[in-house]
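Support request, please re-run this one:
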Amino acid sequence: MKHLLSAADLDHDEAVAVLDAAERMAATQAREIKKLPTLRGQTVVNLFFEDSTRTRISFETAAKRLSADVINFSPKGSSVSKGESLKDTVLTLGAMRADAIVVRHPASGAPSRIAGSTWTDASVITAGDGTHQHPTQALLDAMTIRRHLKAGAGDLAGRDLAGLSVMIVGDVLHSRVARSGVDLFTTLGAEVTLVAPATLLPVGVETWPAARFYDLDRALAEAPPDALMMLRVQRERMSSAGGGFFPSPQEYTREYGLDARRAAALAPHAIVLHPGPMNRGLEITSEAADGPRSVVVEQVANGVAVRMAVLYLAMTGEKEPAV
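Re-run finished. Output below.
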C-alpha cells in the first residue's frame, strides 16, 4: 500500500489488516516509551489547506511516535497566499525529498491528483478532500466499533464488522466521513443506515449500499443500531451554498438531534460516535455526548493508532508492523 486515497481502495482483507496493524500500534502506546524507531530519517508533510484540530494533530503525533520528521504546512504564511498552485507546492515538497504527504484540501480529488502525477514520489494519504473522502476517519471509527462490539472474537469474521448495524445520522450531503464510512463499513460486512432530511442527502444516494430513513425516531425503532454515528452539521458549507437546508436549528435538533431520551432508547450494548468537532446542542446534546454510551474520546485515541498503522504500511511497504 503506497497510497491511501479512499476507503473504497481497501478490500475486506486489506481493511482488516490495517485494523490489526492499528491494534499492534495501539499496544505500543501503553508502554513507558511510546516512540518507535520505525520511520527514523523519513519526512512526513502535513499539507493542510483546510482547518483541522484532531486530524492534523493526530497525524503529527502518529508520525512523531514512529520517529519521522514532521513538517506542518498551511496556506497562510506560505506562497499559496501569493498565488502558488498546488502543483508547484507539491513539486517543492518533492524537491525536498518528502517521503509522505498527508493532504487535506477543499477540492474533491486533490490527493488523487497528486498521487497520480509526476510531481512527487512520496506516499499520499487523504486527510479529507472536499465532500469526497476521509479514509483514516472511517478506519478509526471501524476500530472503535470493532473494539466495543467484536472484542474477544479471534477468527476473521470477528475481526470485521459482519452482523453489526451502523446508523449514520445528519448532514450526509456535505460529509466525507459518511461517504468513507459507508464504503468501509459495508466492505467489512456491516449493514449501514442513513438518516437525514431529504435536503441533506446527496444526488445519487439511492445507489449507495445503505438503507435510508427521513425520520430518526422511526429509524431507531425499525432498524435499531449497534453503533450510532452523529454527523456534524457543516454550517460553513451551507452558508457558502446559500443555506436553506432546514428551517431552523431548533427544528433540526428536534427531528434529528441525539438527546438523552433517544440515547436511553438504544440497545444496552449500543455505542454513540461523532467525528468531531461537535455542535453541542445542535446534532447532539451534552448529555448524549458525555454519556456512558459515548466513545468520542476513544475515537480520537484510536485515530493515532490508525494513522501510525497507515503511515507505517504506506511508507515501508510492509504488510504488517514489526513492533
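The mean pLDDT is 91. The first helix runs from residue 12 to 28.
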